[in-house]
Amino acid sequence: MSRKQLGCLPRVLLSKGRLFSAYSSASSVCLLDEQSFDRNQTLGTEIDDRSCRERLNPCIGRNRSLFPLVARVFHSLNWDTAREISFMKAAEKHGLSHSMYVFAFIINIFVSVGLRGEANSLLREIVCYLKNVNLDAFGLLDALVELSGSTGTLSVVSQELIKVFTEFSMLVHAMDVFLWAKKMGLELSIFSCNFLLKHSVKRNEAALVTSLFDEMKNCGPTPNVYTYTILMDFYCGKDMGRATEILEEMERNDVHPNAVTYSTYIRGLCIAGETELAWDFLRDLRDRELPLNSHCYNAVIHGFCCKGSLYEAVMVLEEMRSCGLLPDVHSYSILIHGFFKNGNVRKGLSLFDEMVTSGIRPNLVTYSSLLDGLCKRGQMESALYLFQRLSGFGFKYDQTFYNILIDGYCKHGDLAGAHRLIQEMIGHDLVPDVFNHTSLICSYCKNRCLKMALELFKDMLANGVLPNVVTCTVIVDGYCMEGLVLEAFKLMDEMLEQGIIPNLFTYNVIINRLCKERKSEWAMEIFESMVKRGLVPDVVIYSTLINGFVNELNLEEAFKLYARMSKDGITPNIITYTNLINGLCNYGRMREALNLFEEMIRKGLVPDKIAYTTIIAGFCRTGDIKKALNLFNQMVQSGLLPDVVTYTCLVDGYCKSRRMDNAVVLFDDMEKKEAAPNLVTYTALIAGFRNTGDWSKAFKVYEKMLEKGIEPDAVTYTALGLHLQQDEKG
User: Fold this and answer.
1) From CA 431, how far away is CA 422, in angstroms rounded?
2) Which of 170, 188, 206 is the last residue of a domain?
3) CA 690 – CA 719 distance, rounded (Å)
4) How far is 730 from 725, CA to CA, in rounded Å?
5) Which residues lie closer than 8 Å to 667 by C-beta, 6 or more apart?
6) 150: pLDDT confidence band, cut at 50, 70 and 90?
7) Considering only CA atoms, which of 513, 502, 578, 500 is closest in space to residue 539?
């Protein structure tokens, strides 16, 4: 770098025997004493550039009172000396310009002798002050450049300034310093550039990330494995195509990915739902003996657990062990959580025992998963026993553990147990939070104790615990369960006044209740109000409304909603299609119902037991037993076991078609398939025999029903004609 590039630096710093390289020279030190700064004094050789002298003199001529501090720092190189006055106090007492000049001088002194930490601390202090008083901190660079004694010093100062700006989240300022340094031809370390890149990724500053990476490739420093890994982390889960390109670019540039790079890429594939691809990639890396770590395997284990492929996840754990990588606490915790979440508590506990036996100490996440799994399974005594032993394992009773246990007691209706834990929690100086209150309120509402729920809600507010949208939605649901829709609306208005915005769940609770009360038109008004508030209805709300209109036999509105959801990009699910098929079946429009059923299959949805039963029942009602039986067989071939409702539809269909032999065969098959006939099935068979005039068989079925402990109802008696006999006797 030339002198012109650096600007008009003081001659002291540009002389052949630089001040910083000769800091032990007494003749150099005296130049820094207060009495040595004379505007008319010559500093050894003439400064030829007049403009440079004019730039320097105003800074030292107006206010010279901090220069003795510079001299003392120069003499001692002592941090405590430099801290005799803070920058904020210096700026307030001696002015910003003079203080900036002096502190920049001290920063350069520290940098020149390798005390980068001290220089960094001073830079942080200055930047913090300038940021707080809302002044442009980039002007600090001018003072640092003016007093820099060499390109090496200036390079280090630039790197420290990049780091400080980055730590203060002033990423644009940091990027400006980077670009300025490259323009000046300064060499910057890869560490400072990676530091800026990493923080830009954390803040999701896509433009800065792209710009910095491109500048590094074009002007240096050359990206290394850490640079590429940071960039990989930015794109993983967002743009796996770009992440793959980065991996390929590393290979082209002979930059060898490390285990962190690979684990980041594998994690990205799993986040994108490509767990099988991630597993294949991992095994390929293993076969090529490329660097791997436990994080690579843990990412795949987590990916399989998220997809519910738990035994594939166990296989990954086993293969991890066979490759010489020991599973860690995270490997086991992920698996334990996965099995508990899936309801397989036995396997989760088995893995926990295996983990402990292997000498791996469970962490907070492991025990939280264990507690949560036991609570969800209803094994509250085991959960409480484990909870009470946690202190012996070195864990403090914290909010997380109490929340899990209290919620477990609430969900299983043991409110007394939940309240005992609340009191114990308070005894441990923990304050019940909104989560605890919401769990209790939800349990009260579920048990139809709305009055108790509302009292707790009032206590919650009185104690300064602010409800959230979940709490309010639970209360709204409680009102709706009791048929108090107007009170539910009133609470929603109060929510809005308190800044609690009702979400889709809140609206769905109201809409569902109105539909159950056959007030779908009113529910539709609520739907439109929700849309106006900017909420986007999901498939659940659409399906709820469609079902409401179907139940009111308003197929026109139901199909309008179906068309609207498709137009809005909301994909119908099994429930949506089943509701519409049910509506068509109720009207006997079986051809349209079958078309919709087949459309559902073409779109990749697999019909469930309810969908099959709905359309089978429709064909049975219209007398098309052949088509109903075909669908029944299709249902069985798809792996679905028909239940008592499905069988009863066919039995009733055969009976109405007077095909009693087929009805009896199907009836007997029900008992073999563990789908025991219920009251409706027996009544259908009795009515069938009555209609064919076979009264003896009708009464035999009736007697068999009584033997099974099934009590007849009015419909059964009607089928047997018993009410007629009673009328005749009367």
Assistant:
1) 9
2) 188
3) 7
4) 9
5) 647, 651, 677, 681, 685
6) confident
7) 578
Residues 411, 412, 415, 419: what is their CA dihedral angle, to the nearest 10 degrees?
-70
The tens digit of pLDDT for each residue in 496-508 reads 888 888 889 999 9
- Which residues form the domain of 142? 1-188
Mean pLDDT to the nearest integer, 312-324: 90
Distances (CA, A) of 15 to 30, 43, 196: 16, 10, 34
pLDDT tens, position by position, 190-219: 999 999 999 999 999 999 999 999 999 998
Q: What is the pLDDT of residue 374?
A: 83
Query: Which pLDDT score is estimated for 25?
Result: 29
482-to-100, 450, 485, 491 alpha-carbon distances in Å: 70, 8, 8, 14
Q: Of 188, 223, 243, at which residue does a domain stop?
A: 188
Phi-psi region of 648 (alpha: psi -120 to 50; beta: other; left: phi over 0): alpha
Averaged over 421-425, what is the pLDDT? 88
Is residue 178 in a domain? yes
Q: Are 547 and 579 in contact (CB under 8 A)?
A: yes
Residue 601 lies in a domain: no
35 inside domain: yes
Cβ-in-10-Å burial (0-12, 13-18, 19+) of 144 comes to buried
HEC letters along 290-357: CCCCHHHHHHHHHHHHHCCCHHHHHHHHHHHHHCCCCCCHHHHHHHHHHHHHCCCHHHHHHHHHHHHH
For the CA atoms of 90, 95, 97, 103, the dihedral, rounded to the nearest 10 degrees, stands at: -10
From the list 161, 185, 148, the residue with the least C-alpha distance to 18 is 148
Residue 359 one-letter amino acid: G
Structure tokens, 378: 């209803």
Token digits for 258? Answer: 């490390």
* Extended strands (E) in 131-243: none
Cβ atoms within 10 A of the Cβ of 611, count?
24
Number of domains in the chain: 3
**Helix axis angle, 96-112 to 50-61, nearest 10°:** 110
Query: Is 249 a domain residue?
Result: no
Residues 436 and 402 sit within 8 Å (Cβ to Cβ)? yes
Give dist(CA 552, CA 546) in Å, integer.
10
Q: Smallest Cα–Cα separation from 302: which of 248, 237, 245?
A: 237
Run of H or E including 433: none
From first CA to last CA, the distance across the chain in angstroms is 120
